[in-house]
Amino acid sequence: MSILEQIKEQVISGNANKAREYTESAVVEGLAVSTILNDGLIAGMNVIGGRFKNNQVYVPEVLMAARAMHTGLAVIKPLIAGAGLKEKGVVAIGTVKGDLHDIGKNLVIMMLEGAGYKVIDLGVDAPREKFLQAIEEHHPQVIGISALLTTTMTQMKEVVAAVKAQCGEIRVIVGGAPVTPKFASEIGADGYAADAASAVDVTNRLLEATT
Ligand code: B1M
Question: Residues lining ligand 1, judged by CB closer than 6 Å?
Fold first, then answer.
């Protein structure tokens, strides 16, 4: 079994120690961080996602897989975020109120940090007040909003409206599995990204357009 398959398997089986060990080995072997991420860690999480959907595994297994994935992510995070890149701007990002999913948001954060942005993590279950407070405290150029549930997507509209009312110049980017470009446009967001890498491209584009 290849080292990427090993990482994937350890995420699927929720073995955090092994996921970390194999991720470390992959780094030592010189595999690209994006390959480790997409073909190892995320690939494992996708398998668990499918099994969860089909009731083949339940919440405890999913939580264990998420923990294993985070352990692997912690190994590669310094490689993505390191390299002393000049700060490009400030992005404050959170998962909306009522929603506890943070794996995708954390990936977006890692990619943004890797691209040279300072990122303020507002965590999960973040009410709109938290986004507004972050604007006061950190003066971000971009607000990122994540939602993984169809029931919490509606919160995004409230956050976008509140952010725009507080500061019309701030750009808002939204994402998460149930979110679509059409929905993003309907709620007045400035950008939509389907995945963490695209979130960087969209953020770059939005900031280029304002400067
Ligand atoms: Co949840 N869950 N979950 N869950 N969970 C989903 C989302 C679900 C699709 C599973 C299913 O039924 N097939 C389903 C939602 C259905 C729906 O609304 N359409 C669901 C459900 C129903 C629930 C509960 C209600 C289950 C229950 O209790 N009965 C419950 C809700 C809890 C709550 O939030 N209030 C729940 C709980 C959980 C766990 C706690 C067990 C765990 C979360 C652990 C954690 O995040 N720390 C969990 C997980 C892990 C999942 C699945 C299996 C995986 C999600 C994930 O991490 N994917 C998920 C099924 C699935 O997606 N296949 C599921 C990997 C991640 C890398 O992808 O998050 O999509 P994703 O992020 C991507 C892009 O979407 C994008 O970039 C990321 C990287 O490429 N992106 C952005 C994300 N945010 C972005 C922001 C951006 C831009 C891009 O800009 C700001």
Answer: 42, 45, 48-49, 52-53, 59, 62-63, 66, 93, 98-105, 107-108, 144-146, 148-151, 173-178, 193, 195-196, 199
